[in-house]
Amino acid sequence: MLSLLGLSLCRLNVDMICQHGEQLILLGWFASKSTHSEIAVVNSGQSFGSVRGIFKFSRDDVKSRFSLSSDEQCFGFLLVVDEPCKPEDIKFKAGILTFPLCKQVYTCTSNLDEMIAHAGDDTEKAQAFLTNGGFDVDASGATIVRQPHRKLDKDLDRIKQRLDSFELHTQGYLQTCKETVLPEVHKIWKARVERKNNYSVKRFGQCSNPILSVIVPLYGRYDFMQHQIAHFSHDEAMRGVELIYVLDDPQLTHELNVASKGVFETFKLPFTVIFSSLNLGYAGANNLGVEVAQADHILLLNSDIIPTRSGWITDYLEQFKTLPDCGILGATLLYEDSTVQHVGMELYEDESFPGIWVNHHPCKGVPFSLLKLTGGCSEVQMTTGAAMLLKKSLFNELGGFERMYVLGDFEDSDLCLKAINAGKKIYVSHDVVLYHLERLSQNMLESGGWKYKLTIMNAVYQESRWRPLIERITA
Fold first, then answer.
1. Which candidate, 282, 222, 272, places its Cα nearest to that of 245?
2. Claim to verify: residue 173 and residue 235 sit in the same structural domain
3. In terms of DSSP H, where are the helices of 362-410?
4. Does residue 139 belong to any structural domain of this protein?
5. Residue 250 falls inside a structural domain
6. In terms of CB atoms within 10 Å, which of 235, 238, 305, 339 comes out highest?
7. What is the pLDDT of residues 335-368, one digit of tens each?
């Protein structure tokens, strides 16, 4: 079932849109393993006659995520549609494939500076592209709202500066990373994660004797909580679940508190919010949520996971209890177009960076119908942290998520390796199928090279912790 890697991936994602009078500005990225290297924009099936070209820029983060080998297979784009149109009527075309804008999850903005900041490393060219199109980016026109950008805090800025001077494609880069870069970055990060966190817990309604605790971290896009609870509220099985959201973004404390009250009054589904006083990262936020959780079993879930049916939570838990030596049970995850995002995860040695093992999702981008899964589950090397079901006691026994993976990438595979090392097995359910919107912009919107280097550094850290076990399970 996992042998369909020959099928070509083709993905398009819109990160941001800006409505400028009758014009529409779109920012996103395109990735394809096939020969489709160009995209077109259509309106209700008819090609636009006034798309002002496409400003393309490098997206090394996307290229790395999908294991693409050349810039021809992946690019970021900024484009302007001049003629009047509604966003819901717009579709992108790549060969025979279409990508409706109405099925995308994007951020709306009126701040052109914000779009330019995310349009590659050469912001002057991006600015020129819009300026030449008639946009006075520097003027104080009513359509341009200047808002303070979310700047890197001092810890991340120090890490960025260190990584900016680190050259990946040089002889001896791996030794330099292990002996110099990793210790220096970890010194900064360790001091950060060990700070005292004066968090608070607020419960909206009560859930007594829950059968399961679901932990969902929130950062930036807290509106995902609203969409998720809207779906959960239609499922009677969710009434017996303790739903815990962990706000990992102190800047949004007031906004989320107000939104939470409105969500509870609207849907009447009990949930808990943990307001962290620090930005803890993916590992720290989940660890905090588990600390508060009351049930014997926990489900670690991303905020952009949407169920495909009711009753899934009950089936998920019952299946977990029947599996021999089950440490972690993942779920089958689909993109909104019903192509596969996840049916298991595995490690492979990156040819571009010898000596480094990276996480890989077999069958990613394959139409789900072609897999012909018959239910049940499969034992896999590991599973993604977007949906992980396990016992709370095991999570604590394993020490939770390792906090020293800076800004993410490998906490989920590290936890799977911990479980395997403890004699447990990793499975993925084919009965529990969920949509994963995979808000890649959360982790990938900034195309700066330092984030890519950070991913490589985290991979080096995982390899340093687990190389003997990795070699055993990948042999």
1. 272
2. no
3. 368-371, 392-397
4. no
5. yes
6. 238
7. 888 899 999 999 988 777 777 888 888 998 899 9
